[in-house]
Amino acid sequence: MNIIFLGPPGAGKGTQAQRICAALNIPQISTGDILRRAIKEQTPTGLKAKSYIDAGKLVPDEVIIDIVKDRLAQDDCQNGYILDGFPRTVPQAEALTHIANIDSVIELAVDDQHLINRLSGRRVCLKCGATYHISLLDGKTTCAACGEELIQRDDDKAETVLNRLTVYHDQTAPLVSFYEGKGLLHRIDGAQGMDVIFQSIMETLGVK
Known about the structure:
By secondary structure, the chain is of the alpha/beta class. 48% of the residues lie in helices and 15% in strands. It has helices at residues 13-24, 31-40, 44-54, 61-72, 90-96, 112-120, 134-137, 158-172, 174-181, 194-204; strands at 2-6, 28-30, 81-84, 104-109, 122-125, 131-133, 150-151, 185-189. The chain has a 5-stranded parallel beta sheet with strand order 2-3-1-4-8, sandwiched between helices. A 3-stranded antiparallel beta sheet has the order 6-5-7. Strand 5 (122-125) and strand 6 (131-133) form a beta hairpin. Helix 2 (31-40) packs across helix 3 (44-54) and helix 6 packs across helix 8. The mean pLDDT is 90.
């Protein structure tokens, strides 16, 4: 089963994709993870992508499409996958039709103010990747898993989040109409609890 997850930054696409992938035994294809690895390793593509991400802008299509095409050709994708973070524009979606057959598109819908509160309060551990929210940290500033200091990523700061949401609405939201027109779109309320969202997605996919 080939699935696309849509939704604004912070809607919970990555978290739900991990759970669905584990349940269906298929890989999660996250362009965000691929790009962050390239940025950390300071590859030419990573440095180029970083300049866009730091400004809250989308990475250009030609960079993303090549990355995705190569990834979908790998052996572990032959029985299905979840695309998380791609496509982000209608031209990317049109390009995807030439390299993949999509079975279902899941949109996690969350309003902007809820997302700003959710993302601007997020803190991450750079060592182990654990993610927390300040509302649950009780003033703590270190990772419960490994003890390292927690930081706020630049793209989680309120002003950058607002810019990212503006970019999403301008460039990515039209994908909703694109996939609605193809009869592939299923909308899920992303403001619900994680377990409720998971069950809703599984039911939508016809998985018990």
